[in-house]
Design goal:
This protein is of the alpha/beta class. It is about 40% helix and about 15% strand. The protein has nine helices and 13 strands. The strands form four sheets. It has a seven-stranded parallel beta sheet, with helices on both faces. The structure holds nicotinamide-adenine-dinucleotide. Nicotinamide-adenine-dinucleotide binds next to helix 1, helix 3 and strand 5. Keywords: Decarboxylase, Lyase, NAD.
């Protein structure tokens, strides 16, 4: 029974990863400082194969038990969080990643770092394949997140090349599902919260900017396949079906049966115009393609989180 250590395991994606690893018969050590995550995401897990350690990985950390996989997900992830926590975001991407890699090296464990489509910035190439180097403003407000992730990738590759650590890197595109936080500022939780209360749905700009949205179960399946693949180069995992924000808002209105109207607000600084993964590499390496369509995923999110889970309360 392999043991997996998941940093950021009490967050949205981390908690789904813990669930799936346990379901597959792994032992799981979940490490989290609860900065943006919550014990609520893992309180349903009551098996002896699961352990929770509350600690901040910006500080060095060790575990006694042999670890076979390190899944490194800890980082503020939504714009609201990383704009509130700019230095912490840079520290967890640098010191935190360094400590997680050190632990993987010590245990001779496989390592996966959770990178992001944000490494492509506001892309000049569409769709984005892994060999595109990106178009990021390092000193813009989003730079703290984008550059922390780019640095984390560089560090991960250096540990592989110089220290022989068996590393992998997933570039995650927008993912959604139950346990998203209603007030995390991202489009799907915001639109669902507004729609369920028949409040106006706030679309930035004219709503013509596009995104691709991946349902969480598809993402986690791709993440585990990549960690187990022995591939060291970055790999995009995301759903290539592209929607404008306006199309997304209308899909949310349909699925929730809402009476909301759509209103338009100022576009945030450096907001990318287009985002769509080229998933040729994931198909070739992992035989991975997403299975859940947007409407199906929105319905699953509604069913899984329930109305109360999606409305929530501001933090
Ligand atoms: P999240 O905020 O729900 O989860 C992040 C978790 O990391 C939280 O539980 C938080 O408490 C924990 N954490 C933060 N700093 C920490 C520290 N110093 N020590 C220990 N724990 C710490 O975010 P998420 O959406 O689940 O994202 C998980 C990972 O996936 C992040 O690395 C994020 O950058 C990446 N990612 C997510 C998406 C997405 O669409 N959700 C897209 C691209 C990349």
């Amino acid at each position: 029974m392999p043991t997996c250590l998941v940093t950021g395991g009490a967050g949205f994606l981390g908690s789904h990863l813990c669930d799936e690893l346990l379901r597959r018969g792994h032992r799981v050590i979940c490490v989290d400082n609860l900065e943006t995550g919550s014990l609520k995401n893992i309180e349903h897990i009551r098996v002896p194969e699961f352990a929770f350690l509350q600690l901040d990985i910006v500080e060095p950390f060790f575990v006694e038990e042999q670890v076979d996989f390190v899944y490194h997900l800890a980082s503020p992830a939504s714009p609201i969080d990383y704009l509130r926590l700019p230095l912490h975001t840079l520290k967890v991407g640098s010191y935190g990643t360094h400590h997680a890699l050190g632990l993987a090296k010590k245990h001779r464990a496989r390592f996966l770092t959770a990178s992001t489509s944000e490494v492509y910035g506001d892309p000049k190439v569409h769709p984005q394949s892994e060999d595109y180097w990106g178009h990021v403003n390092p000193i813009g407000p989003r730079g703290v997140y984008d550059e922390a992730k780019r640095y984390a990738e560089a560090l991960t590759m250096a540990y592989h090349n110089q220290q022989g650590v068996d590393t992998s890197m997933i570039r995650i595109f927008n993912t959604y599902g139950p346990r998203m936080r209603p007030f995390d500022g991202r489009a799907i939780p915001t639109f669902m919260r507004q729609a369920l209360q028949d409040q106006p749905i706030t679309v930035f700009g004219d709503g013509s900017q596009t995104r691709s949205f991946c349902y969480v179960d598809d993402l986690i399946r791709g993440m585990i396949a990549l960690a187990e693949s022995g591939r060291h180069e970055p790999c995009n995992i995301g759903n290539p079906d592209e929607f404008t924000l306006l199309e997304l808002a209308n899909a949310v209105i349909d699925v929730t049966g809402s009476k909301s109207e759509i209103i338009f607000e100022l576009l945030p600084t450096d907001d990318p115009q287009q985002r769509r993964p080229d998933i040729s590499r994931a198909k070739e390496w992992l035989d991975w393609t997403p299975q859940v369509s947007l409407r199906e995923g929105l319905q699953k999110t509604l069913d899984g989180a329930g109305r109360d889970g999606l409305i929530g309360r501001a933090r």
